[in-house]
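Can't paste images in this forum, so I'm doing it all in text. The chain is below; anyone willing to post the predicted C-alpha cells underneath?
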Amino acid sequence: MKYIILDLEWNQSGIPEESVKDLTFEIVEVGAVKLNEDRVMVDEFSCLVKPQVYSKMHHITRKLIHLRMEELEKGQPFTKVAEDFLNWCGKDYMFGTWGPLDLTELQNNLRYYDMKPLSNGPIAFFDVQKLFSIAFEDGKSRKSLEYAVDFLKIEKDIPFHRAFSDAYYTAKVFAKIDEKLANSHVSYDTFRAPKDEDHEVWVDFDKYSKFISRGFETKQDLLFNKRVMNTRCYKCGKGTFKRIRWFSPNHKNYYYVGFCPRHGYVKSKVRVRKDCNDLFYCVKTMKKIDKETYRTLYEKYVKYKENKKKQIAKAKGK
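Text version of the structure:
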C-alpha cells in the first residue's frame, strides 16, 4: 500500500454576504507526497489552481500562504488539477493529512464541479496531527505542524505554509510515528455517510470502538435506530446493566453508561451530524471508564435532570 500525504491551500470570500453557499472554501493549491509501503518518499505533486469562484484573495489567505492572485491566474482549472492529482495517486493508497479538514474540502470542491466523488461513504485516513499528539504528547492537544517538526528535530530545508511544503513536512512527521500506533488510530472522513446498513463502519481500537451509521432522513429516525442505540459491551458483546440512561446536554451529543460484569463501566457517546446530502448520521464511540469518570458523568446527568425539571415547571407555569 502507498501513502498519499496531502495538503491543500484554499481561498474564501472576504465578505460573508458574497460567500458561495456550496463552496465556502475554494482550493487554490494542491500539494502531495507519495510514500511507499516503507514510508519513504518516492514521488511528489504540486500545482496551483486558477480561481473560478473568488476573484480576490482573502487577506488572511494572502498573509498565510504568500500567494498573489496574479500567480494563481497562471494555474490550471480545478477540474484539470483534480483529475491529474487523482490519476497521480493511482490505486491502493491511503491518505494522510495534517488535521481533519483537507479531505472534506477536497470532496466539497469535487462535488461543486460535479466530478466523480472520492468515495460513496466515509474515507479512512491518517490524521497525522492527531497521531503526533497520541505518540508524543497527551493525545488530546493539537499542535502546529512546525511545532511537531521542531519537536522531532526534523531539518527545515524548505519554507512552510505552501501546499507542497506542508505535505512534505507532514510526511516527515508521519514517518517518525510507529506504524502499529498509526494503524490502530485510523481516522474517518465523513463527508458522506455510509449509503446503507451494509456499509456502516464498525471498528475496534485498543481502547475504544467506533461506529459510523448510515444516513437518515430525520434525527428522530436516527435516534430510534437499534444499531445506533445498542448498549452491549463492545468488548464481549453482552448486554450491560444501565447505570446512566441516555441523555443529551446539548441535543448533539448523547451519553449512556452501562455496567458489564466482565469489563466494568462502559460509556457510549453518540455525536449527531449531517453529511453533504443533509442526511442525519452519527459517530458513536464506546469505551471503558473508571469509577471516577463514571461519577463525574453521573453528576452531569443529575444536573441535566434538575435543569429539565425546572424547564418543565417553568413551561407549566406559563
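The two ends are 64 Å apart (CA to CA). The chain is about 35% helix and 25% strand.
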